[in-house]
Structures are given as C-alpha cells and as structure tokens.
Amino acid sequence: MGSYHRRRALLAFVVLYWAIFPFSRSLVGGFNKVRGVNLGGWLVVERWIKPSLFDEIPNGDMLDGTQVQLKSVTRKKYVSASNGGGMNVTVDRDIPSWWETFKIWRVSENKFQFRCFGGQFLTTSNEGNMILAKANIPTISETYIVERNDTRVHIKLLSGNYLQATEDNQLRTDYYGEPGWDDNGATFELVIYANNLHGEFQLANGYGQDKAKDVLMNHRNTFITAEDFSFLSEYGINTVRIPVGWWIALDPDPPAPFIGGTLAALDNAFLWAQVYNVRCIIDLHAAPGSQNGMEHSASRDGSVGWPLSPDYISQSLDAIEFLSARYADNPVLLGIELLNEPSAAAVPLDILVSYYKSGYQIVRNYSSMVYVIVCQRIGNADPMELYETNIGVKNVVLDVHYYNLFDAYFGDLNPLQNFQYLYNNRRTQLQALNSINGPLIFIGEWVNEWNVKNASQIEYQTFGSIQLEVYDAASFGWSYWTLKNDEKHWDFEWNVKSRYLALSMCALTPI
Ligand SMILES: *[C@@H]1O[C@H](CO)[C@@H](O)[C@H](O)[C@H]1NC(C)=O
Ligand SMILES: *[C@@H]1O[C@H](CO)[C@@H](O)[C@H](O)[C@H]1NC(C)=O
Ligand SMILES: *[C@@H]1O[C@H](CO)[C@@H](O)[C@H](O)[C@H]1NC(C)=O
Ligand SMILES: *[C@@H]1O[C@H](CO)[C@@H](O)[C@H](O)[C@H]1NC(C)=O
Known about the structure:
The protein is of the alpha/beta class. The protein has helices at residues 3-20, 200-207, 209-222, 226-234, 262-275, 310-327, 349-366, 415-435, 457-471, 492-497; strands at 27-28, 31-32, 34-38, 67-72, 78-81, 89-93, 102-106, 111-115, 121-124, 131-135, 144-149, 152-157, 162-165, 171-175, 188-194, 239-245, 279-286, 333-337, 371-375, 396-402, 440-446, 477-480.
C-alpha cells in the first residue's frame, strides 16, 4: 500500500476509533478518562509475575507461610495441636487436618517457628520437657533448627536438644545426642501441604537482608524503566496504577524484612510519567498485617491482621499521609488509592469505611483535587455497599476489579458465554453504579485472560475488545493488570505486540 492509502486507511481507522471509543473525549475533572495499565509486581513483588526472583533462595520451599505437617517415623502418627492450639501437643493423628498443619515463620535459612491453626506457636514448657501450642508471640524460645535429609527432618532446640515423639504419643524435648536418619523418635517426615505464598515478605525474609537488597534493587531498577512509559504513551495509555507497600513510607529503613528503595523508584516513575505525559495513581496494595492474606498484600503467613489492630490502621493512614505530603502538589499525581482489595470475609465494613473516611480527609488536607480511590472488598461483597456510606464529598472513585476468573462460575464458560457475561452482568452493573449519585467508577484491574482452554487468537481479540467496549462505560475509566508478566496472556505488552489485545488506540501510533 502506498503511503497515501496507508494514511487514508489510518484516518478511517482513527475516525472509527473515535466513534467506538467516545470515552476518550469525555473528561473526568478536566482529564480524559483513565486508560491505564498497572505496574504490578514491581514495588510489591509476586512470584508468578516474575518467578526468577525467587530462584536462588536457600531452602526455598520453606518460606514464610508454607504449611507443613510432621509425621513421626516411629509412631507413624502426625504431630497435632489439639483444638488448633492453646493446649498440649500430641503425636497421635493418623490423618492430618488443620490441627496437624503448621504455618512456618522463617527466622533464617534453617531456623523456623511453627504457627498452629489457631494462631499460637509451638513452645517449650518448663514442666516435663513438653512441647505445647501456647505461645502468642514467637521469640527465641519458639525457634527451632530444622535439619533436612530429603523428606526427613530433625527438629532441634537452640539449646541443642532434639524433639522426639515418645511412646505415649507426646512431643518432648529430651532426645539427647545426635539422631541418625534411620527410624528413631527424633526423625519426622516433613510433608509440605501448601506452598503458595510468594510475595515481598517471602522474598525479603527468604534471602535475608543483604542478598534481598541486591535482588530487589536490581529488580526495581530494571523491571520498569523510562522505556515502558514511552511504550505506554505511544499506545495511548494515559495513566499507570502503581501498587506500593506500606513500608514505602518508612524508606530508606523500613522494618525487617522489608527493603528500602521503593521510594526512589516511585520518584523515578513520576519523572518518567511527566516526560511521557502519563498520570500516576498510587495504590496502597500491601497494608501492615495484610488486608487480604494474599501474597500481593505481603502477607507473612496468609492471615489477615490489618483489621485486628488499631496500630496497623493508623500506620496505613500514616502511609497515606506520607504519600499525600510528598506527591499532592505534583501535577503527575492523579489519585491515591487508600487500600487494594480488602477481604470481605476478614475486614468488617464499618472498620473499612471509617478508614476510608479518615484517608479521604488526609488526602483532602493536601489537595482539593486529587482523586481518592476506594476499592471494593473482594469475596462475597457487593460494590453497592460503598455507595451507602458517605466517604467524601469530592472526587471519590470506587475501584472494582473485573476478572472472568477466580470463581467457580467461570470455570466452564465457553467463549460465547464469557462474552455474554460481560454484556449481561458487567455492563448492567456498571450502568447501575454509574447512574447512582456517588463515587465515579474505575475498573482498576482486568485482564485479557480467562478459563477457556486453547482459545484462538480471534477469540482472545474478541474477548479483549468486548471488555474494552464494556469497561469504557466506567465513569472514571479502567486499568489493565498488568504491564509485564511471565504468564504471557496477562502481559499487556505481549498482548498488544502480538495483537491478542486489539487496542483500537494502536491506530494512534505514529507512523
Ligand atoms: C493433652 O490434652 C489432651 C486433650 O485435652 C488430654 O487428653 C491429654 O491428657 C493431655 N496430655 C498431657 C500429657 O497433658
Ligand atoms: C541422609 O540419610 C541417608 C540415610 O537415609 C544417609 O545415608 C545420608 O548420609 C544422609 N545425608 C545427610 C546429609 O546426612
Ligand atoms: C489536616 O491538617 C490540619 C492542619 O495541619 C490538622 O490539624 C488536621 O489534623 C489535619 N486533618 C487530618 C484528617 O489529617
Ligand atoms: C490444549 O492444547 C494442548 C496442546 O496442543 C493439548 O495437549 C490439550 O489437550 C488442549 N486442551 C484442551 C482442553 O483442548
């Protein structure tokens, strides 16, 4: 095609594009609607986004939150914390269940603490050399050295004694001497029951301070660079949503195991954003104690501590205050998201709303315009619940995450049924939320991936186009999860370059 025809074709495409994507003309407070991409896995790591980050952790299958069971090779029974903790410990269960499953807290490469189902830690009692499940806070007395040989382990006190299963099915600390790897009272089979938590906590604590610093500094300097902002702006992306952890507010010396340096990286993002005319949303993705128990909130062991402690909540507000103070006057800042994906099961609505109201006041204290973004609870919660509360009067945005994943409902849907779901359910919900007098709506996360196996490129393109068409209706806009990902179908860059995500805005690419 000659250059004249190419230009005509392009012009036609652009005209079509403006017709199909009217949102690009509508303004949100003087700004085009958000057409964004998340910078996931950068300042809050997730192993599945970049698995190689975790490759060199010694004893890498025993990270914080790994769930283990211990079976005595002589008794042929599992170690059990009766009632899930708070009582004595026995070695008397044939079949392991929750009382027999312990979450690891890692102290070092070979030192660990064992957390029972109910939250207490295995500890040593003064009487009778018994192991009990009674410590609420782990200290060195709850720390054990684990020696491994294939699937077998010895568990040793720091004082040198080994634990043993005795004939009366107790777990005691009085095995004297050095046990062999044959069948003896001090030898246990280690069963790794679940090993699915691989976030910032696991990485930092797994490597230990010095090595973690090298790994994270290198990752933060290379995973996202100015080039990415250039790429995004070329494709019409006008916003990045940047997940950060609460420890950013304590840079350069956050509490262990977190590693300083995320603040300098965020500063860089703001500089690159300014150069390439992109706006930034800062998203508090990981709050102290964890608001959802997942690796992306830097949970230590899968529990949700955030709502249980006023200290965690006030530390989160301190982080919001810190970020507001630092960036509120920066014209690149579009919004601050107060908390990502709090768990509906674990975070009561009243606690969350009160936090959101305080966070709103703090941001407003620094800026009258910056959008204050609140996220829906994940799990069994209706985003409508946040409309019934008055979080703030101006520039409040509700973030909902739309994945055709993570729910058994989507498991068996074929492509057509997925398309219908977008039109019938997502669009309907967006229309309902848009029409209420309240926060603007933001699809802060979505992805061009689904449960359909071996879908064709055309099917993916259609899925992507319908998502764009439907999510367009969101009054604040949308942002894709995520820019880069080892799983290529999640990777925005791959999707765009391989034409699996047919962004009409590609037409705007300069020729
Ligand atoms: C441990 O607790 C169980 C259940 O309460 C009890 O039956 C048993 O006697 C206790 N064992 C010891 C050694 O205290
Ligand atoms: C592991 O156990 C086997 C016997 O089961 C033994 O031969 C070997 O020396 C042990 N390895 C170490 C490192 O102790
Ligand atoms: C807002 O700022 C004022 C003056 O600095 C301060 O007294 C007030 O506590 C702040 N409010 C919030 C919610 O931070
Ligand atoms: C998908 O494709 C792979 C490789 O071509 C094949 O092994 C697999 O059975 C297919 N799965 C389905 C559900 O069709």
